[in-house]
Amino acid sequence: ADLSAHALVLTDAHKSFGSNKAVDGVSFSLAAGQVHALLGGNGSGKSTLIKMLAGVERADDGRLTIGDQTIALSDMTPARAAAAGLRFVHQQRSTFPELTVAENLAIGGYGFPLAPGGRVRWRAARRRAAEVLEKYDIEAFPDQLLGELGPARQAMVAIARALQVGGAGGILVLDEPTVSLPDTEVRLLLDAVRKHADHGQTVIFVTHRLEEVFAVADNAILLRNGQLVSEVAPRSITRGDLVELIVGSAVDEI
Ligand code: ADP
Ligand code: MG
């Protein structure tokens, strides 16, 4: 197969918890520079799949190809995932409301100027933070406490930090980033995600909300009981037809 047009190819991913087949033979190929929604109801296997990609849940089987590199999923570690260009914003975001925006961006040290011994150079870090905020169009100041921002902007800072890992390209993986956001904030965050893709970023966007798929995704991968039941372009399908595809999968808020 010609893998060059794809940012990521997942082949035959498996993960069971005892007799529960949480992820049961999932394969897909993701085109570069698009938003790929991973859509499914509660318990359909979305987070388990993401955790296997991240190397935090050990896969029983499957492999991942990124560029010319193929990794057995059972050998995946967080370090290998980062080296392959995968950048994660997990549902439990590790941002700190009581720290400044610049401090939050600099945590982890990626792309930020470090002194010998690994200490952050704060004056340079604030300048770097200002550049990052400008680049990603985030209305915030480096010295502002993160907790002063609205929830969408806090999520944007978490995404901007994830994108500091490694070089250009890569794949941004967002696990349910809109959960617990009010509607107006959801809109802001979806616009930001869309903009990342419009600038060439490949995005995996995990959600159980149908309306977000129509709002932001180029491609939707539907999971049910750990299996891929369908892959569709939301643009080419009506809401009713998509609902029909996922009937039985208990997707919320249809
Ligand atoms: P989703 O993210 O789509 O809601 P999950 O991947 O969290 O689904 O869960 C898929 C299935 O795997 C569910 O049946 C869930 O109960 C089970 N599961 C997930 N994590 C564990 C775990 N650590 N131990 C046992 N079962 C788990
Ligand atoms: Mg989940």
From TrEMBL:
Domain ABC transporter: from-to ranges: 8-250
Extent of the signal sequence: none
Domain of life, per lineage: Bacteria
Ranges annotated as spanning the membrane: none
Protein name (database record): Sugar ABC transporter ATP-binding protein
